[in-house]
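Objective 1b: paired records.
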Amino acid sequence: MRLHTLQMSAFGPFAEEAVVDFDALGCDGLFLLHGQTGAGKTTVLDAVAFALFGRVPGARDEDRRLVSDHAPAGDIPRVVLEATIGGRRMRVSRSPEHRRRKKRGEGFTTVPAAGTLVWLDGSGPSLSRLSDIGEVISRILGMSAEQFFQVVLLPQGDFARFLRAATDDREKLLEKLFETDRFNDLEAWLRDRARSTRAERSEREQTVDRIAAQIAGLVGDEQPVEADPDWAQTHLEAARVDAADAAAELQRARDSAQMADAALAADTRTHDLQSRAALARTRLAALDGNRELLDSARDALDAARRAEPIRPLIDDRDRAQELSGRAQASLADATRSLGDVPEGAGLLSELSWPPADSDTATIDAHIDRWSAESGRLAPIAERAGRRPQIVATIDSLETASAAAVATLEEIDRDSVSLPAALLEAREAVDASRTTGSRLPGLRERLTAARSRHAAAQRLPALDEALTRARTAAAGAHERHLATRERQLTLQQRRIDGMAAELAGRLRAGEHCAVCGALEHPAPAVATGHPVSEAEQIDADYAEKQAADRRAATVERLAAAERERAVVGEACRGVSLADAAAEVARIADEADTVETIAADLDARIAVADEIASRVDDLRSRAAATREAQAGRRERIATLGADLADLDAEVSAATDGTGTVHERRDHLAALCRSSTALRDARVAAEHADARAREITRRIETLAAEAGFVDVGQACAALADPATVTSWDEQIRQASAIRAAAVATLDDPEVAAAAGGDPVDLAQRARDREASATALDAATHRHSRAADRFARLQDLAAGYWSALSVLAPVLERDREVQGLADLVAGRGQNSRQMSLRSYVLAARLEEVLVAASTRLREMSSGRYEFAHTDAAASRGRRSGLGIEVRDEYTGAVRPATTLSGGETFFASLALALGLADVVSAESGGRVLDTMFIDEGFGTLDPEALDLVMRVLDDLRSGGRVVGVVSHVDEMKARIPAQLHVIRAEAGSRLAMVGAAV
């Protein structure tokens, strides 16, 4: 894999577009990436990782803050990387998820992550789905993101921690780098299988215990401690005998109950027959006592049925008489209404009652005459209805004419004063334009004066900050010297006491870590207070922290000096008071000019408004005069029309009223006459019908045998009464017939002649036998149920015992195998299968790393892998030790000094890169980065490391070194400088082939 170019925009601290030309930087095969703390050195590496995998290493990926806070709102964060992987050149472009302002409305919207992959050599189609891009890159690169982060972006601090890490932590990192999923799956499968067999065993044992508990609860016995098939058989036989005894007792109780039921049924039948005979005699006596009432009901029922045909005519007569009365009342109302209308009394005097044959024709003749007159007045009435509209129109025109006269007078007054006002407004516009031309120059002078004033205000604070920065830098330098001296002192003391420390770890029966002997005749004894490994690590860490703080204070001091120089240059030697006075003077002058210039638009608007008013007055005067002439002509025409209309109305009404009043009077005469005519006809018809119905009723009453109509009406009865009489007569006949039939029944007659029976005693006997039967049934049911349940439980108990035996054997086998693979049980090394595989991988890494370490340490050190059993039950197989060729001792990697630790971690990182690269298909990693750690090296050690770096770049490989060390700047000419600034970081390439 070789990187060519990298472009970043709105990414991390880079607001504007930043470009890295790796081809130019890597011409010599080695370049340096340096810059201030927080400038964005790591962001360059993150951009490479994000372009390839859509994520960044470590905890930075969890924060997901990839979008630059320095970039303007709306800029799209983007990373573009050109690289050659597996012989294929590609361009990968990615944008992280980010927020932008909504195009419509307020607020923000989230833009999802996006990306593209373009094959620059035309070897495949372009891709735009993130999942497809990630899959293709991982496949042709031959490694995962975690492997890439460790193999290409070599984090020295991580490998230093890897050296000192416990076995579990070391195992986690190795799992990320090497494919152990199949071994993990095997361990997980055995673990799941062990859980499954243990669960099956527990389930089977619980089944046996549950069934035994059910049997014990059913028979009232204690559950056996050990499973016993004979125990269930004994209780089952006892239950069978008890069920047979209960069945015999039940049969005896059933026979006794059947005999009691038969005796009770016979006595109950005799008692019912005797009761029926007594009831029949009682009903016959009651009918004989009510004979007179029944005869009276028969006579009334006969009369009501003969009078029933008259009932409909009686109702018709009543309705006809009611209608006749209402018709007479309506006739009286119509007569009175017509008499109240003038000219109506004359018509009434011509009519008679009862009506004559000519009365209707007389009424119709008057109605026709009045209707004809009303029709002649209709056109005149329509024209008279328009008179109010004509009068209103004339009044409106007169009002408008008066308003037009007033408007013309106002226009004449305004026409005199407006020309002078227009001339004055135009002169004011010219004056504002002349003054406003000075405003741009004044604004530029004011901006410059304010910049000088702001710089003068910042100078005192910057001087104080510079003093504090110098003091802090001096203090940090002294503290670093102190911690460095303490670190070297502790390191020397620890080396001096190393023999005593190794002797303190000796245990009886264990091999010596130095000579391998099992006997320890004279272990070394510490002289003075020994320095522990933890104290040495703490001292190393404190020295590193002090060095970092010293570098940070030096950077802050340089930044403060640069800022002080920039601000001092901006002041140009002007004092704070002079700068403030200059700002105030120019601001006052600019405000005055701006106020005058601001009035320009208003003065132009005033002049335009006055000119517009002059034109408007002229137009209004002409239009008003033209409209006034038309109104005068219209008023004259409407006045003539109104006079003609008044003359026509007066002639039509003879001067007695309006046309509408005369037509209303004629309409009232027609309505009243019509109502009178209809009422006379209706009254005559209603009286004739009432007389006809009365004659028919009298005829029907005589035919039915009644003396008169009154007797017939008295005989009428309502339907409910008729039904009641008929029902009484029918029921009495039915009761008498039923009673006679009952007494004539031979069985009833025989029972009536016998003695009364005692049903209560029979019922008590039957209840006693039923109680005994219930008790026997209940006992038999319980005994049979218990026997049946015991049969089922015993069968289940014996079946569960037969299933449990092979389950117990299988559980013992699976548990033992799972413990062995997981590093427990009989596994003496306490090494899991996964750890065993990782130990083999680690051994390969240490072999490759030892080659680098021997070169960097001048042949003194090499790595040693140990799989000895760890103490206190911890996992084993992933131990790392260092063999010292000077002493022949093998000691833990944690005993190395700071510089030696850097050697070891760098060698380990390079060895890991070689192994992972080989495992990923042997692809050559043409570009790699080494991050930090060079500050702990002396010049001689640095020479050795540079020799290793020279070896790495052989064969066309490009190595990028990330470091703060000034010595590295002198040794590596090709450099990528990351420059921190308030508006965002930027990049500068130094010494590269650009």
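Objective 1b, second protein:
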Amino acid sequence: MRKSFKPRLCKEILFLCMLLQAISGYGQQKLVVSGTVSDKLAPLEGVSVLVQGTRQGTKTDAKGQYQLETTQGARLNFKLIGYRDTTIIAQNGTINVQLTESAQTLNEVVISYGTQQRKEVTGAISQIEATELKDVPVGQFSQKLQGRIPGVQISQTTGRPGQGMAVRIRGSASMNAGNTPLYVVDGQPITGDISNINPDEIESFSVLKDASATSLYGSRAANGVVLVTTKKGKGEGINVNFSSYGGVQYVPQRGRPDVMNAREFAQWQKNYYEDKIRYEDWVNPATGLAEIPDDYKNPEQYGAGTDWYDILLRDGAPIQNYSLSLTANTEKFSSAVTAGYFNQQGVVLNTGYQRYSFRANNEFRPNDKLTLGFNIAPTLQLDHNTLSNTDGQRQVIDGSFITSPISPAINPDGSLPITTNTFGMFPNPNWYRVLKEKLDNYRRTRILGNVYGEFKILEGLKFKTRADFDLGAQTQQLYVSSTSGGGLFVAPPQRATGQYNTETYYSWLNENVFSYNKSVGDHIFDLLAGYTTQKYRQENSAIDKTDFPNDQIPWLDAGATVTGAGSNTAAWSLESLIGRLNYSFKGRYLLSAAMRRDGSSRFGSDRRWGSFPSVSVGWVASDENFLKESEKISFLKLRASYGLVGNNNIGNYRSIAMMSPTNYVIGGSLAQGLSINSLGNPALGWETTKQLDIGFELGLFDDRISLVYDYYNKKTDGMLYPVELPRASGFSSVWTNIGTFKFWGHEIGISSKNLTGEFVWNTDFNITFNRNKVLKLGTNDTPIGGYNDQGDFNRTAVGHPIGQFYGYVYDGVYMTQEEFDTQPKHSSSAIGTVRMKDLNGDNVIDNNDRTFIGDPNPDFIFGLTNNFRYKDWDLSFLIAGSVGGQTMNATYENTENLDAVFNMRKEMLNVWRSPENPGNGEVPRTLAGTTALFRFTNSRWVYSSTYVSLRNVTLGRNFTIENNKYLKNIRAYLSIQEALMLTKYPGLNPEVSARAEDPLRLGIDQTAYPVPRTFTFGINVGF
């Protein structure tokens, strides 16, 4: 009996406890709680819903729905990786919960060659999930990022379909070796254009800004790095999503060219010839009499005439996009397949762009040690009349500004005139006909792909090898008909010309990387070492023909005469060693050190190798005891970094002398040989950028408010630039390392969760201040640019920012004889002519009086995003802006030409004609021999480029589908892109830049393809 006493006593005590628990529970009210869990965009699958203090729980289904039996007053915990844990009190009825992403404890951040917990990142990295941007209906992924990332300036310099985005991270890092960041897609560095990438394929973007974050990309990281991660198979089972949007595009009325209509133009011309007769004894060559030309004798006969800009536009140009994606995930296999079609017809007649895309990302996990992957992404792009002959000086849009409004674009019988000439004007083609007959088609095919394998050698030790490939082919078919050829100053008819160009290229890359992760107590070590090699090769060919029998057959076999033919090839290679150490002590003391050593074929034999080290430190101060219990500060991390990165983007063979075929006369006979056509520089070396970054990340009030701040200072040495040589050398220039300049600035990003609950309001704001200064330019600090009175708008000089505007300072008109007699004068000056400021005080106005007249670099840029949600409805809008800086409206070089050869701005109606009729005091007289100075680059053309733009407004609704085994959810939305622009700049686009990638020539408006306002309706369906 004694042996069984203890077991029996234990059983009785256990039974008594269970009875008491049952009695206690009987008094509590049982209830069933149900609802939907979502984030700010859509329902969330796989959220754990647990009753606190118990093992009772469930997970949300594919529609984000859950159901759980519990008791009144129980605490329910909602958990999902990447979101803040949320706790609510159970009560009767439906409980819908919205989870918010944790600003600092979000899961993993994509970094160079891997991922890292956000808390442990010591570099300046901004990451955006593609789900935040899915309702921004644009064709290029860089457009989606506009105004959303501190330190990143994304400008839409032209509205050409499929093009027009200029991206700069922390300003420029080079004057002449490119400033486009390096794009890395799923670990594969991309060479050349990135417009082939379908935005719907993308899962996240990581923008690496400081040297610590970018140094593992070494010689290509000076301009920053954008890591693009495409969709992978995840979750459970098979998920299918379809998305589509369609809309129409219009050119806004604001900023259209304010040029004269037909009646105004005829009146101006009449006044012009009256003054020529009065002051110059002009005689009409058609009649031999001093009389007004017939075209302009009676201005009242004309109405508005031809609006050449408007007639070249297409209102309601359609845009459409379709995307179908499938993801699957099991223990052994995961896959994500996305197929897309994008079609954007241009708002300029007979222009358009199409893209067909496909991507398949597959990963196999045969066992716990081995992972294999294969990814492939073919694309086809079709450009119709979008890559040339629309933007820029003396192209189609520029021609529409200056063509005579008296001339018709379409004859009364519907036929199209060939030319548009009226008396005294430079000859012009019919630009409407040029566009209608234009044929300039590009067909671009590209295949990106890679295979990889990762093997776990030991606990914490992995080896990964991968092989990437990039294959491309491009063809261009160009045909200029006899009735549309010529251009400005050379009106048709001309001989028809045809051209066919081809380009093929391939690039392969192989990487082999060991990684090792080890924890020893509170110490965590993460090591990486590897070797990578890459080769790129391209081939080009072209043939030109003319003497076509007619304009009906645009193919080259119809042309009788070959006017040009050629082919060439080029290649480069890169070989690299990489290494990195990440160290963490107690999760709050952080250290990262990295090194990349690159060897590039582009540099001289003695300068091919460069080393690019970096180091960064971080301190998670909020984990210290003195801050752990703070009710205000929920997260605080201080960090700093310093490192060196490079730039080898100078083209191929700059370091060696190049030869080309030439003919020699030997013994009276012509013999073919070779001659040197460019001078090499065997000492040509790396352009390097040193960068310091100091920053902090702060979370307040349980991360209701998050703040990120960075100060950066970067200095570029050994600037790569082609230096002009004396003519006696026989060469025009040679590439060398000649200069030094620095950039510095501040970046601030603020996120706030203003309201939570049934009505949700979140705000994101960022602002960036950038400055730059040139420190050295070669041996003699000789300025770059600004030497010519016309067409040479920018100058870069020591002690100044890069690419400032340079010219005369406009000072009005000599209104009276007294003003003319007492003021400094140009050699062409007369009463009523333009007056420029005499800056050097010698009482003579000449090119020694030119100076810096503007700066295209803004004082700061900013972006503001607001997201609102109420039940199933949501509203978001993005405001972006730029403050300070100027744009030079170089179209004035033609539209303020007072020689009666172009149409002009309406203000030119106010010309000075006499002391009794002096006009508005801004526009000089038209006296022959005096008008050139008014066309020289001057401050009159410079305007503030400050703007505030409502980039995007989207209103959407989510529909949850009940009791349907096929449909999971549907989302519909309406969106306006480029909804509103507030600016004092008189042109259409204050972001315009004729040479957007060249920091030496920023901010020049020589006309550009208009950026449209787009209205779209979209739908997303989950299956």
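The first strand starts at residue 30 and ends at 38. The chain has three domains: 2-98, 108-232, 314-402+410-436+447-808+853-890+937-1022.
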